[in-house]
Amino acid sequence: MASCAVKGGCVTDYIAIAISILSMILLLSRLILPFLVHEVPRTKNSGFWIPVIQVFASFNLVLSIVVSYGFLRFEKRHWWQSCYVWAVWIEGPFGFGLLLSCRTTQAFQLYYIFVKRRLPPIRSYIFLPLILLPWIAGAAVIHMKKPLNYRCHMGTYWIIPVSSLHALYVAALVGFTGAIRHVEFRFDELKDLWQGILVSASSVGLWVVSYILNQIHDEISWLQISSRFLQLIMASILVLAIFSISSSQPLLSQISLRKREPQEFETMGQALGIPDSGLLLQRESAQVIDPNEPLDKLLLDKRFRQSFMEFADSCLAGESVHFYDEVHELGKISVDDPVRRIYMARHIIDKYIVSGAAMEVNISHRSRQEILTTADLAHPDLFNNALNELLQLMKMNLAKDYWSSMFFMKFKEEASMRSHELEPVTGWNFSPRLSAVHGADDPFHQENLFKGSGIDSHDSDMQ
Questions:
Q1: What is the enclosing helix (H) or strand (E) of 29?
Q2: How far is Cα 141 from Cα 145, in angstroms, rounded to an integer?
Q3: Chain segment 99-145, per-residue pLDDT in tens
Q4: What angle do CA 439, 318, 340 make, to 5 degrees?
């Protein structure tokens, strides 16, 4: 036992390594499978790259413990095998520090979006390195002072500040979460954060205890073996649990392997429970469409809007109509329900407004910045200027061609059939089976400028 306690290769070491490998496989599957199985679109925003960074940090943390604490028998002949590379830099700033920083960044985003009702003043790719600076500074100091021995252990003098830094990041996460505890989230983000804090605090507590015992008692063989075993097990549990309890993307959690509800959603409107979102009601009366009517008035009819959207998609210019449709859904949410309005507004911004968005719409820089720098994401007129600009573009570029297209001919035929066939029918809902939540939207403008919330909240989707 004394030999493997120093050189590694104990039975418990291999058991711990096997468990850590299993946890990393499960971790990667939770990251990749939603994109493979549910075909979730990969975005460029923090909702995608923060989870990826979490996985990277998790891998660093687990691997650094294996290498630096002597789980395997190998001689350290190269500089990259140094204790200061693995036990200081990879385990600290690029392991545990980066992992907790990602979680704190998520809590920071939720705080600004739902408490301050505005987009965070600091972008995530700037905020994350900033809160990682204490770890980098601490690692630099340890590297310069070189307190580690040949077994990567440091003295009692250094253990207290190192342990305090771990506790500080858990405390920061608790602070941000406490600031948003009064918000009635739709997708259990607050519950996820508290669960993440509980798992983090428990795992970190046991990890710190085993870390201190491992660092101080070099001479006790059984304690060295058991403490490093506990360290690796706790780290494996921490990285898997903190990623599985994910709050970075509410919609992604709806379609992940962790199914919370038996129903799946296709649009954010359906996920938020907006009435008749995404549904075509068979009981709707046939609407007579007059091409001389203003486009903004015609688009209030859901069946016409769907037909016009299909035509625009066929012209590879559908983002404006999708944007209009989702802003129209936003208008159905009461101004007295700011949380749901913020969810919808943030979804629209991520999909249509930010530079490089999946369906970025063609609006002026002034309108774009007006939305991105708004002081109130729940404001009823948030997207009005963008809608007006896009309605003008649709009128000039799409509307004239639509009236002579096969899409309009098909729409008229279907409207005529409904007017004859559905008069005596009491009504039923037609809603095909919906799959994964992706998200999108589009707008346009006409003579009548919008003065209400996106569009009139009464929907001439024809009850």
A1: helix 11-37
A2: 6
A3: 989 888 888 888 898 889 999 999 889 999 999 999 999 999 999 99
A4: 30
Kindly provide the b/e burial profile for residues 326-365, where b requires at least 16 CB atoms within 10 angstroms of the residue's own CB: bbbbbbbbeeeebbbbbbbbbbbbbbbbbeebbbebebee
Give Cβ neighbours of residue 39 (< 8 Å, ≥ 6 apart): 436
Per-residue tokens: 48: 């995608």
Distance (Å, whole) CA 68 – CA 111: 37
Q: What is the Cα–Cα distance from 197 to 195, expressed in whole angstroms? A: 5
**C-alpha span between 208 and 168 (Å, rounded):** 13
Task: Decide if 99 contacts 242 (C-beta within 8 A).
Answer: yes
Tokens of 293: 């009517």
Q: Quick one: which of 120, 100, 99 has its CA closest to 109?
A: 120
Quote the CA–CA distance of 298 and 278 in Å, as a whole number.
18
Q: Please count the other Cβ atoms lying within 10 Å of the Cβ belonging to residue 322.
A: 23
Q: Calculate Rg over the CA atoms of the chain.
A: 28
pLDDT tens profile 119-129:
999 988 999 99
Residue with tokens 């096997």: 18
Residue ranges of alpha helices (H) inside 288-405 are 295-298, 302-314, 319-330, 338-348, 365-372, 384-394, 400-403
Query: 């003295």: which residue's tokens?
Result: 155
Per-residue DSSP letters for 100-117? Answer: HHHHHHHHHHHIIIIIS-
- Domains of the chain plus CATH, in order, are 2-255 (1.20.1070.10), 271-430 (1.10.167.10)
Cα–Cα distance measured from residue 330 to residue 323, given in angstroms and rounded to the nearest whole number: 11
Q: How far is CA 366 from CA 117, 309, 318, in A?
A: 20, 26, 22
CA distance 260 to 264: 10
